[in-house]
Protein 1
Amino acid sequence: MRTLLLTALLLCSVSFLTGPLKAEDGTVLTVQVLSASTGKPIDRASVIIHFKHGLNPVKMKKNRTSWETKTNQDGTVKVPSIPMGEVTIQVIAKLYQTFGETYQLTQPAQTIAIKLNAPQIQYSEHRDGVK
């Protein structure tokens, strides 16, 4: 019982000392999603951010490896402090092509502007009205 109590106390003190992600270790990321043809913001676009490394600095819990959200009316998403380094951002919006690219986060506050294109014309061997 005493060993269990000491182990629990040690784990709590380690998590207290390491604490949450420090400002110098992370970045506040803002993603802005715009239409490539009009330059207008795209609201309700799904933004998925995959982290190369998880969010949890202490390996006691499962690391969060992605963040999923939707853009607001201004076409922006603000993600709270996440680790600096490599992230892959994927954007899915109705009536636009899906976007995906890898970025390096190196600054304490970073904004990434993403321009989505309209879908391409679908080609078919079949023609309407031809028999």
Protein 2
Amino acid sequence: MSLSPQPRHFPLRLIAGGLGLLALFAVAVVVVRTGDPGPAPEDAARVQERRTALVELHKKDAERLNTYAVVDRTTDSFQIPIARAMELVVREYASTSPRAVVSEVIPAATPEATPPPTPSAAP
């Protein structure tokens, strides 16, 4: 009987598993790098169309902010220029205290705005 150590064989499954994981990682890298190329480049005509639409939108916005108009006659709803609206708000709230303005805008912010709870009747 010999007591010499027997050579250990490296498990074939471990090598195959390591190579499989390496191959899986390589496939993932290829998929990520060649995935979605992003949006298609726009041509000059589309760029000009979008710029024209943006200019038109800005023009409409400026018109709405700076002109008078009737929104709905049945509810007496009218549009006024933003500068005039700010003047009216400042004039309306100039003589009131800031606390009164806050309580008007946010009624739940002041303790006196909420009524005290009524005690429930015990049976």
Protein 3
Amino acid sequence: MAEVGRKRDNVDEGVNLRIKEARLALGMSQADFCGGLRLSGGHYAEIELCHRRVNGRLVSLVCAVYGVREGFLLSGEGPMFAEEAGAKLEEVCRIFRELPPDFQDYLLRQARDMKKLSGRSK
């Protein structure tokens, strides 16, 4: 077992770090991001800390749920997001940043409710 605070020798940390980079680009907390992937918070935290290997299933899931390009996750090459998803995400982020804090909170509540209605939530 790996020592606490140290990565395992057999973990390709590049993929792990690119998943974290995608989460940060989406402006999501670890809790929200791992919830969308149906992972426990502890399991996901170990991925970001490079204490766990990332398998193909998780890569596919991150791509499907968050619109991240597989090529980016696996090699770091090319844009992070699929063109369509990236453009939409940029617009949403731009609009969100321009809103007053109360409206930002309202928008987040609405987005969470829409996510629940779409069936992608627990």
Protein 4
Amino acid sequence: MKLTAESNKDVVRQLFIELDPRTARGALADVLADDVLLPADTLPNGRQGLAGMEEHLEFMGSRVEIAFDIIDMVAEGDTVAVRARARMKILAEFFGFSPDGREIDIEQVQFLRIENGKISEVWRLNDVAGMMQQLTA
């Protein structure tokens, strides 16, 4: 199967569908390699691979209601760059903050490497300063 920039972007779009509880189909394994390399700060404990992402989504889903929007996406070779927005409503203790129903927006940038039609590596940078500013407002 010849991978193109567009087919790689399609894989990443599908990941964002699976990350968003509004649209998830339970098909993470369709887009993530079993041994996907995730950022070391992936909550709750930095576990790697598909199992680590599933654990991350369970952890986050128990604390926040979340929705994702892709703002920009660019692909070159086997790498896709994404600028996205996560809108979250706090449902349980989150980074030491009590659940008060407030909604926050967090912008993030991700670089994802595609190998054999699946995401094999994820690098992510969240606007943590912006998140903390919203949480302490």
